[in-house]
Structure formats: C-alpha cells, structure tokens
Amino acid sequence: PTVPLAVLGLGMMGTALASALLQAGHQVTVWNRTAAKTGPLVAQGALPADSPAAAVSASKLIIACLLTNDHVQEVLDGVGDQLAGRTIVNLTNGTPARARELAAWAAEHGASYLDGGIMAVPQMIAGPHAYVFYSGDERAFRTHQPTLAAFGDTKFVGADPGLAALYDIALLTGMYGMTVGVMQAFALARTENIPARELSELLVPWIGAMLAGVPADAEAIDSDQHLTDVSSLAVNHAAIPNFLAAFRDQGVDPLFFGPLQEVLDRAVKEGYGGDGLSRLATLFAR
Ligand code: NDP
C-alpha cells in the first residue's frame, strides 16, 4: 500500500477501479453523486465520503471516473482550493483538448495531473488483458505507477496530457468502424432472413484475415509508399457503387459508404488509383 486514495465516481467503471484498488490492499475513500453506490465497496473495506471535499481531503491520489469531463470539471471546481500537492488521475473518456485544459487547470491549483484512457470494460479491470494509456505529469506517473498497475498494464504515452485521449480515441475509432460495419452486415443479411449466427461464423474469420493486413498498411503509411499488389483504390472505387445499390435495393441504410464513395472519387481524381487502401489515411487528414 502506498498513499491514501480517493475514487470519485462509482459507475460501472469507477466501481471496478475502486474494487481493484481495494483488492490490491490500498486504503480507498469513495464518493459518488448517488451515495447508495458506495455500499458494495464499503463492504469490501472502502471508506465512504459524503462529499468530493471529504474524499479529496483524505487522499493524496484522486482518481476520477465520471460520465464526461464536464462532470469532472464541475466536481473538481468544488474542491479547487484543496488540490495543492495532490495528484489527479482522470480516467473519464474525453478529448485531447479537454485533457490539456484540465491539466492547465490542475497546475493553476498546484496539483499534478494525469489523463488516462482505459482499454477495457469493467469486467476486464485487474485482468490480464486490461491496460490504461496515461499522459501528462511523468513524475506523478512514475510515483503512482505501482498503484495504477492494480487496474492492468500501464502505458505512459507522453508528457502532453492530450496524448492518452488521442490513443484512446484512435483505438476506439478502429473498433467503432468495425462494429458499425458488422451491424450493417447483419442488417443486410437480415433482409434475406440469413440468421445472424450463420453470418457471425463467417464474419469472425473473415475480419480476422483482413486484420492481418494492418501491419502492412502501417508500413505503407510510415514509409509513404502506397503502391499495392493487393487491392487498388481504382478497383475499390469501381466496386463501391455495388454496395450503395445493394443497400438501396435491400432497404438498408448505406451509413458511411456514401462518404467512402466520395473519398474514393477524390483519390482516383487526384491520381492515387494505383495505391492501396493505406492511401486513405493520408486523404482523411483535413
Ligand atoms: P456509468 O454510467 O456507469 O457511471 C457514470 C458515473 O458518472 C456515475 O458515477 C454517475 O453518478 C456519474 N455522474 C453522471 N452525471 C453526474 C453528475 N452530473 N454529477 C456527478 N456525477 C455524475 O458509466 P461508466 O462507469 O461505464 O463510465 C464512466 C467513464 O468511464 C466514462 O467516461 C466512460 O466513457 C469511461 N469508460 C467506460 C468503459 C466501460 O466499458 N464502461 C470503458 C472505458 C472507459 P451516479 O451514480 O450518481 O449517476
């Protein structure tokens, strides 16, 4: 056990975080807007606080996990004069810009600030596959890393406090793109009564095989060499109208296939028809 800790926010994730800290043997004070949620954690040995101020004054390390950073700012505003000499670890989902603002605000109040992006669902916390990106005050990270390791692996990605949110959003972007595409595939299959289970058995190995090409895409992007012998943008450009027509004919929302058609039109017009899909990473930049 290291320093006394507070966890602000006991939703699904905050509860899992507090529980992991208790399991690791730490002294943990917990606060939640809806006080009843402290019950199960108190049963595990946590100390309940009836206000953020009470939680903060009992702690050196303050972990916040609320719905949004607006809520974090609101809660911290109420305890600004108590934060000097303490460390805030904010594990609420947010933007790089907002993390930088919160870090500057914390510095004005004499507090160290780390922003974090949790790559896990609550059930994975403290398990072998969970990890958290951290950015911001590196000294605070080094000091508290053994404590933060209770949640899973710790990945410090830089002194710019915005970087953890950037990594977090980048990984979630890949996930949402895949998940939305998968739901759209189910929607299309449903129009012909193909059972989702049957499609799932086909989708999982298919997507897995396609993901195996991601490292080659990464190499193309890092070296800025996009010529391909796999599948050219010209070929994809010619195929996408079939998707749009099939969605229309079957009565399914085309979602991002319209914008994809536009970006492929632009790619071909600008002379990138011979390049692979890795070229898109450079065309999406605005
Ligand atoms: P929950 O909805 O379970 O919990 C939300 C928390 O925010 C509760 O403690 C809630 O308090 C509090 N809250 C909401 N509004 C206010 C307010 N106005 N003032 C004070 N507190 C407020 O969400 P999760 O725990 O799942 O998520 C929390 C954060 O963790 C989010 O930013 C989420 O994106 C992130 N995250 C979640 C993951 C997940 O799989 N669940 C994965 C990775 C990140 P109350 O109990 O009183 O409503």
From TrEMBL:
Coiled coil: none annotated. Signal peptide: none annotated. Pfam families: NAD_binding_2 (PF03446), RedAm-like_C (PF21761). It comes from the Bacteria. Residues 160-285 form the NADPH-dependent reductive aminase-like C-terminal domain. Residues 5-156 form the 6-phosphogluconate dehydrogenase NADP-binding domain. Keywords: Oxidoreductase. Belongs to the HIBADH-related family. PANTHER family: CYTOKINE-LIKE NUCLEAR FACTOR N-PAC, OXIDOREDUCTASE GLYR1-RELATED. This is NAD(P)-binding domain-containing protein. It comes from Streptomyces albipurpureus.
